[in-house]
Amino acid sequence: PTSSNTGIRYRMKTSPYILGVDFGTQKLGFAIGQSITGTASPLITLNKKSTNFLEAFENILKEWQPNTSV
Predict the structure, then answer these.
(1) Is residue 43 a contact partner of residue 21, using CB atoms and an 8 Å limit?
(2) In what order do the strands lie in the sheet with 17-23?
(3) Residue 28 and which of 1, 18, 38, 60 are 20 to 30 A apart at CA?
(4) Is 17 helix (H, G, I), strand (E, B) or coil?
């Protein structure tokens, strides 16, 4: 989308990243996809019982700032 600010047009940035989350029964997996290249790479796999996966999820969101998640 574009906006006008005192006659100057600029394009708002959107993140090219898509966060993939795999919710298993014992583990939680994260991957990051890139809309530009159409590729994805694994980030981390966490054991739900031994890891604070909500904190890890928050850190991933802050670091990568994905546009969407699946």
Answers:
(1) no
(2) 39-47, 27-34, 17-23, 68-69
(3) 38
(4) strand
